[in-house]
């Protein structure tokens, strides 16, 4: 049994796919909370014998609405060279480009920084920590005396060489780490073996996500993309997902959504990657007060709420959603018609500029709004079964997609994967191998890790080389070895069990 859960802005969707491919979906209000929802899920399936995947809007919510509430102390160990004072408190300690500890940290200096300010979380960033994380671990030992490990982020877990972006990403991780930690502990009450859904459409074990929780940022568009593909079989289309608070528009091309690299979060350029989408700040629960407002105060009147919403406007113009009479008693028909027209005009304008002639409508209100949007934009449309929970379906059917950062130094016979020395590879690393051999070693290790984490061997065949750089070590006119940096990723997509 595969169970996919998407915790959105207003509702939580659950999808079940059994061994025969039978699909069921359910929707819960977020007020229930993850513990109550998992308790209900547990009555239907044995979670300890199922593959459980969870997509959560928690990181997105924190970083959009509570960014300044979580105060992060950023400790930076850059070594000599450029000035990094704008990135945090600059401290002694340096690892060089080959991973040698040139200067140790000063524990007293770290302690002084911890005592000097108020903070909720700590980000620890060393310039070449991806090649040797020793100094970050030493700093962590000091930091642990002042804050719990659930509120600390280490930069070598981000796994990219670009230091300024890695610092920013580590700060982001520190801001969301505690909340993700608490969510994880709630889920672990039901099972120790589950996955989180990433912003690029892949899934990773919770233990991996805890080290770099920014990978979970803005995962909803990706889940909708793969859910829409699975439900329709279409590989090229515009997806319009009408949620409770936003309407997201994205393009599916050759079976996959476009992924945006180095995403900016609150003005900070980061190593975060997620599916590219256009988000319109109106959805089914958006407040109506003379006009639609870009926020939610309560559920619709038709579902027992206190305020009118887009859902209620649809009831006034002829739909029958929930207690439609309550909507009609409260609102004026001509005003409702005007606002619904304005909403569909706005979405259609965006859709018209996208190079595809087919719309896949998802979200609870898709059946009521997509026909009008398609008509105005001159597109064909399809609204699949289970469209109201396409996000949870996408979460259920996606495959493991690990990213691996590898560092090879053949002169010293060193292989480092995701910041950790791999002694098993020593015998294979010597001399002056060609680039393809080093790339092959990184790809092989990524596949091995994914299978160890529960991926099927058929799901790890497609591996992309995200980054590669190498140079020869020459002394006395003789090539002594090679240093190479490789980043590879198992390509996101549908898992073999779902195809």
UniProtKB/TrEMBL annotation:
Entry GO MF terms: 5-oxoprolinase (ATP-hydrolyzing) activity
Domain of life: Archaea
InterPro entries: ATPase_NBD, Hydant_A_N, Hydantoinase_A, Oxoprolinase-like
UniProt protein name: N-methylhydantoinase A/acetone carboxylase, beta subunit
Domain Hydantoinase/oxoprolinase N-terminal span(s) in chain numbering: 3-146
A biological process term (GO) from this entry: glutathione metabolic process
Domain Hydantoinase A/oxoprolinase, first and last residues per copy: 166-348
Alphabetized Pfam families for the sequence: Hydant_A_N (PF05378), Hydantoinase_A (PF01968)
GO CC, one annotated term: cytosol
């Amino acid at each position: 049994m595969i169970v996919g859960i998407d915790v959105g802005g207003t509702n939580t969707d659950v999808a079940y796919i059994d061994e025969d491919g039978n699909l069921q979906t359910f929707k819960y209000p977020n007020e229930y909370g993850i513990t109550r929802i998992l308790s209900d899920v547990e009555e239907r399936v044995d979670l300890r014998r199922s593959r459980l995947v969870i997509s959560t809007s928690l990181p997105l919510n924190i970083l959009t609405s509570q960014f300044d509430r979580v105060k992060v102390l950023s400790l930076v160990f850059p070594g000599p060279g450029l000035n990094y004072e704008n990135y945090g408190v600059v401290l002694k300690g340096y690892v060089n480009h080959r991973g040698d500890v040139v200067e140790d940290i000063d524990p007293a200096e770290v302690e002084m920084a911890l005592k000097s300010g108020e903070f909720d979380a700590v980000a620890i960033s060393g310039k070449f920590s991806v090649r040797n994380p020793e100094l970050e671990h030493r700093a962590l030992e000091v930091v642990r005396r002042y804050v719990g490990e659930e509120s600390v982020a280490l930069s070598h877990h981000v796994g990219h060489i670009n230091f300024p972006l890695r610092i920013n990403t580590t700060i982001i991780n520190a801001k969301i780490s505690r909340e993700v930690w608490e969510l994880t502990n709630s889920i672990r009450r039901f099972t120790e073996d589950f996955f989180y859904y990433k912003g690029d459409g892949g899934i990773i074990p919770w233990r991996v996500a805890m080290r770099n929780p920014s990978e979970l940022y803005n995962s909803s568009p990706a889940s909708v993309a793969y859910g829409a593909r699975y439900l329709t079989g279409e590989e090229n289309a515009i997806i319009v997902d009408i949620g409770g608070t936003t309407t997201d528009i994205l393009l599916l091309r050759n079976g996959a959504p476009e992924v945006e690299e180095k995403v900016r979060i609150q003005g900070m350029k980061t190593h975060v990657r997620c599916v590219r989408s256009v988000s319109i700040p109106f959805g089914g629960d958006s407040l109506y007060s003379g006009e639609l407002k870009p926020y939610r105060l309560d559920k619709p009147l038709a579902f027992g709420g206190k305020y009118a919403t887009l859902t209620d406007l649809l009831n006034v113009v002829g739909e029958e959603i929930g207690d439609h009479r309550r909507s009609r008693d409260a609102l004026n028909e001509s005003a409702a018609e005007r606002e619904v027209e304005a909403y569909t005009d706005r979405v259609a304008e965006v859709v018209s500029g996208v190079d595809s002639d087919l719309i896949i409508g998802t979200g609870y209100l898709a059946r009521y709004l997509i026909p009008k949007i398609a008509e105005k934009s001159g597109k064909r449309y399809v609204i699949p079964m289970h469209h109201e929970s396409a996000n949870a379906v996408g979460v259920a059917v996606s495959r493991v997609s690990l990213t691996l950062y590898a560092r090879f130094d053949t002169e010293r016979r060193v292989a480092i994967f995701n910041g950790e020395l791999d002694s098993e590879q020593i015998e294979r690393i010597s001399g002056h191998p060609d680039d393809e051999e080093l790339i092959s070693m990184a790809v092989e290790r990524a596949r091995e890790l994914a299978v160890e984490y529960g991926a099927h061997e058929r799901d790890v065949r497609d591996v992309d080389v995200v980054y590669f750089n190498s140079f020869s070590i020459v002394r006395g006119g003789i090539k002594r070895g090679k240093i190479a940096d490789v980043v590879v990723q198992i390509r996101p997509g549908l898992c073999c069990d779902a195809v």
